[in-house]
Amino acid sequence: MELFSEIYSCYYQVLRHLLSGQSALTIQDIRSRICREGFEESLLSIIPKIEDGTWNLFQKDGGLYLSRLSTDFLTPLSALEKSYLKALLSDPRMGLFLEPEQLKDLRHMLSAVPPLWRPEQFYYYDRFSDGDPYQDERYRHCFQILLQAQKNRQYVDIDYISPNGNRLHHQYVPARLEYSVKNDKFRLLALNPGKNGRMKLELLNLSRIQSVRPVEKILSSCMDLNALIRNSYYNEPVTLHIVNRRNALERAMLHFANYEKNTAKIDEDTYECLIYYNQSMETELLIEVLSFGPMLTVIGNKRFLCSLKARLRRQRSLLSSQKNGCV
To answer: Where do the structural domains in the chain lie, given as residue ranges?
Structure first.
């Protein structure tokens, strides 16, 4: 099986998108689409063959081009795509999005297909081992209710145990489900309607949710979730200086990919990265900064530096007590 094939190339993808549309296109529409999704030089290869009918993909009517594909045309899956899907079925998180019968049918249909990879081929050296219980029935049930409510902007009753052990019960509107690779956990960004009518954004760990019940109430107004998240950020971002040795800049961009940030070059091999965060992100950001290595220096802000130093002191104290206990 070829891992690299022309059917995954830019030309094929651009033409697939053009042909899947059922509305007539002018040649300028086609040019714009190619420029947007492909490369400028793609015009030189694609446009002449469309105009002179060499490929016979479009039916020409005056100055308009109509796809020859019918509305019920289905593109068959390649061997690589089937192998990729087979590998995904081995991920326990798939059971959160599919029903058991759907998983069973897919496994049967792909039974003769070798998976593109197997879970045991991956070793996560920097991931916590206490991930969420994806195959737990209660967890799956809560996840699927939240996912459906998020799509419908529906209120839900959530019974939740906070990190300090308090049991909480509130009505929320699920806004977004996020996955943390480092923690191997899902978390819910939820809108909590305050007493003054203003929505407050809260972060809930799915594994701490005890029960979820849909409520016959829909959020009528559209909320700009990204604006709410930005409004929750501290006034001062974390300022990091990254010395670009041993590919440190690229590693940092991947390491902090899930944070909003601005990065600028300040001298020949040093970059300044501003990371925006709120209280719910602070602990995880601290851990990620500490785990990066010596090519990164924390410049500010003062609050984050104080938290960082306090965490280092606790770690030193813990190591010291463990060492004394072994003597």
So the answer is: 6-67, 79-121, 137-230, 233-319
